[in-house]
Amino acid sequence: MAKLRFDDLSADIKALVVDKIIRPTDLKNVCLVNKQLHEIAVKPLYRNVALDLGSSNDNRLSAFLNPKNIGLKHVKQVRLYLANVRDRCNQEQQAQLVSKMILEFLPEDILEEFRCGDTDTYDEPQRSRDGGFADVLAHSWCPWRPFSADNLLLLYKKQRKMKWLEAMDLDRDILPDLKKNEKMQTEIFKDARKLALYPENRETLRLCEFFVKNTADMLEELIIHTNFPETADPRDLSPHGDHIETRTLNDSATAPGLLTSTVFSHMTPFEKCAPFKNMKSLRLHKVSLRYCPDTWCKIIDFTNMEELRIYQCGGTDSFFGQLSRSISLPRKLKVLEFQHRDNSENEALLALDGFLCLVSGVRELVIDLEHVKSLAAAAGIARHSKTLRLLNVHCSLDSSISSSITGPSDEEELVWDSEDFEKICKACTGLEQLSCAWPQTSLIRAPSEEWKAFERACSTLKDMVTLHISTWPTNKPSTQLLPRAIYEQLLQSLAQRLFEMAASSDARVRSEPETNEDASAPTTTTNLAVRPSKLHLIAFGISDKIYEREDSKNQILYLRSTSKDAEGKSKVYAAPVGWCLRQYVEPCSDVLDFVLHREARPPCREVRNGGGGWGGEDDDE
User: What is each CA distance from 392 to 55, 337, 552, 587, in whole angstroms?
Assistant: First the structure.
């Protein structure tokens, strides 16, 4: 019988194989094999398209938009960025023109999502190295920069099956055009399941209300990220420059605020309203939740919530307290993300600990807290031991006492004691991704006892694929910083030590005892199975990049690989890998995608040009 070859497989089976390839360059190479594989591989290759606009590379889009390109009809998601160029003069105008050209040439009714920038990473400006604030939107576009209303109308006219819609700031009011075109209203809202709202003035509030009202019956996921200025700018003479006081915007003890009363106006009065029927996911940024029982808990049925993300929202202690009541306690919660700056009494942390002890079944838990005196309680995390797959916990002291130039340091991030960390690792045996701070150790000395305790605890996690250590090992007791090349070499040895411990330790799982017919006879148990560790990626530090196609020098990653020694024997090797490349090499590493509100540079010195230092590297400053 002839051996079956890949060429002999049917096209459907080949498509299933090709669909497992996630790296775009690999898919491109598959397209070049033959005509059949080209037709198969263009589907996953063109499914998600990200474009940098506003640079000289815009000329290359003519090949992408060519009608002969058979991949165009397979595009499902388009994400636009402003290119990182030195001269930004008229860049946005050029990008608006190019985006219009893209919308004109794309086939009709193919898109499911159209985004400008990454909606997961918009937040307040982060402090740069020189003490000023860096613009986190350096590579983003919307929602905090006005998008062309004409382009958005063109999008709604040609793409009528989108599942993701955004209400954001535009260069003019689009609401009258939408209201008078009943056909467009019917077409653009009939398939919408996800809604992202970015209110920053009264005009966008009214646009958000229109979107919510028309998608309420089928809405499954809702994102609300406010960006109202805290103080009025006397220099702002634009029509959007109407300042809204915080007490008017947010809910009070007596009445709903402008945000809830406008966006959800069709549901007033909230005491008698019916909550969203299909809402499963909620993400709130900078929304006050102090008086949530009379507003948010009436609008949304949290008992059916599966994904809950709360970022920088005031009054979260009251919010978690309300959710801890039986009438609002989520029964199906799978994802919980909480990012907050706590008060001096740590009320939000206490409320979170109580909530984690009541809810059950969480698969992904992300906690990023500032200005707290302790980490989240290990007991609340261990409660979800049977289901927890991703754990990302970072808590730090008040960062205001640190230098305004260097930003928060490693010493300020809190570290679990060995007993609590061991308790979490022993309980949550199904963890696949772990991100937390580790104890201090020196690269030029033997690892500290606390570090060794963490290593032993992690060696029991046989399903863990990605380990993220946010703190940096030092070179103490030396008083001088090592050159970066030397520091990375020593850090690689420490990562290799972790890989070797994972490879050498076997998890012996005791099988169930066999029942004997004679009850008095002892049971003979013991079939022992060996389960090797799955640890594949180790990352150190915290990335300062939010752009998904740029590597950060503040985070160093190592991939588990193999090498041969002088005798030809294979051994574990920690291979350096870039932040961008790792998502294609190891898909189970999305724990590194979360943006943490702190910065920790590697404790090493950069070598300047002509400085005569080791390694010959350029200074990154």
Answer: 37, 9, 19, 17
Does residue 579 sit in helix, strand or coil? helix
Place of tokens 């591989």: 41
With beta carbons less than 8 A apart as the criterion, state whether 436 and 394 touch: yes
Q: Are 411 and 438 in contact (CB under 8 A)?
A: no
- Exposed, middle or buried, 522 (CB in 10 Å: 0-12/13-18/19+)? exposed
DSSP 3-state percent helix, strand, coil across the chain (nearest 5):
35, 20, 50
- Give the pLDDT of residue 234: 53
CA distances from 189 to 11, 100, 219 (A): 35, 22, 10
User: CA–CA separation, 582 vs 552, rounded Å?
Assistant: 13
- 497 CB-near residues (< 8 Å, 6+ apart): 447, 455
361's tokens? 């079944």
Q: Could you give the angle at which helices 24-31 and 35-47 cross, rounded to 10 degrees? A: 160
- 312 has a pLDDT exceeding 90: yes
Look at strands 194-197 and 221-225 and give their pairing. parallel
Domain boundaries, the chain: 8-107, 370-378+396-507+530-621
Paired tokens of 134? 């860096």
Q: Indicate if the pLDDT at residue 437 is higher than 80.
A: yes
Burial level of 238, CB count in 10 A (0-12/13-18/19+)? exposed
Strands (E), 374-515: 390-395, 433-436, 466-469, 482-483, 507-510
Triad 43, 46, 49: Cα angle to 5°? 155
Angular region, 162: left φ>0, alpha ψ -120 to 50, beta rest = beta
Q: 388 and 370 in contact (C-beta within 8 Å)?
A: no
One-character DSSP codes across 40-75: HHHHHHHHEEEEEESSGGGGGHHHHT-TT-TTGGG-
List residues bridging with 392 in a β-sheet.
366, 435
- How far apart CA 77 and CA 112 sit, in angstroms, is 6
pLDDT at 406: 43
- State the sign of the Cα–Cα–Cα–Cα dihedral 353, 358, 360, 362: negative
Predicted structure pTM score: 0.86
Reading the block at residue 72, the tokens are 């165009």
| Helix residue spans in 106-201 (DSSP H) | 149-158, 175-180, 182-189
What is the 3-state secondary structure of 188-235?
HHCCCCEEEECCCCHHHHHHHHHHHHHHCCCCCEEEEECCCCCCCCCC
Predicted pLDDT at 242: 66
Measure the CA–CA gap between 602 and 581, rounded to whole angstroms: 21
- Nearest in space to 159 (alpha carbons), one of 198, 130, 128, 188: 188
Q: What DSSP string runs through 519-556? A: TTSPP----EEEE-----EEEEE-----STT---TTEE
Q: Which residues of 534-573 are buried (b: 16+ CB within 10 A; e: fewer)?
A: ebbbbbbbbbbbbbbeebbebbbbbbbeeeeeeeeeeebb
For the chain, what is the radius of gyration of the CA atoms?
27
Q: Residue 597 and residue 398: Cα distance in Å, rounded?
A: 12
Reduced to 3 states, what is the DSSP secondary structure of residue 258?
Answer: helix
Q: Residues 470-490: pLDDT tens digits?
A: 999 999 888 889 999 999 999
